[in-house]
Amino acid sequence: MNVLILSDDLIDSSKLIADARQRGKSAIQCRSYEMLKSLLSNSELEQVIIDLQHPLLQLEALMNEFSLLSGKPEVIAYGSHVDAERLKLARSLGCQQVFTRSQLLK
């Protein structure tokens, strides 16, 4: 699998999985932090998409996990446009791209 999506939102995940497939990539929705962590060692992993509104998200710990990987995936985060602090935090912790939900899912 090339893309992991940390989100418990089925609609968002369905759109992101469809987009990945259109680009010729395989994608998996991870509804839990534990599931995402268990799949991080996949050698074909290119991208991780993180829903900043995920109720169990531990963003700082997750970004530390990424720093330990030998092949570093691109990390994309998205969240509510009204949660500017969380979007700013994602940028400061090293997410390569940060979008509002409407920007990413248009």
Overview of this protein structure:
- This protein has 106 residues and is α/β, with parallel strands linked by helices.
- It has helices at 10-22, 33-39, 59-68, 84-92, 101-104; strands at 3-6, 27-30, 47-51, 74-79, 97-100.
- Strands 2-1-3-4-5 form a five-stranded parallel β-sheet, with helices on both faces.
- The chain is globular and about 35 Å long.
Summed up:
By secondary structure, this protein is of the alpha/beta class. The chain contains five helices and five strands; from the N terminus they run E-H-E-H-E-H-E-H-E-H.
Topology:
Layout lengths: L2 E4 L3 H13 L4 E4 L2 H7 L7 E5 L7 H10 L5 E6 L4 H9 L4 E4 H4 L2
Parallel strand pairs: 1-2, 1-3, 3-4, 4-5
Rounded mean pLDDT score: 93
What overall geometry do the principal axes of the alpha carbons give?
A: globular
Strand order of the largest sheet: 2-1-3-4-5
Q: How many helix segments?
A: 5
Proportion in β-strands: 15-25%
Return residue spans where pLDDT drops below 50 for at least 5 consecutive residues: none
- Category from helices, strands and their pairing: alpha/beta
Q: Major sheet, described briefly?
A: 5 strands, parallel
Number of strands: 5
Indicate the percent of residues in helices. Answer: 40-55%
Fold-level CATH name: Rossmann fold
What number of structural domains do the residues give? 1
Classified by CATH, the class is: Alpha Beta
SSE arrangement, N to C:
EHEHEHEHEH
The CATH architecture can be given as 3-Layer(aba) Sandwich
Under CATH, the homologous superfamily reads: Response regulator
Radius of gyration from the alpha-carbon trace, in angstroms: 13 Å
Gap between N and C termini:
24 Å
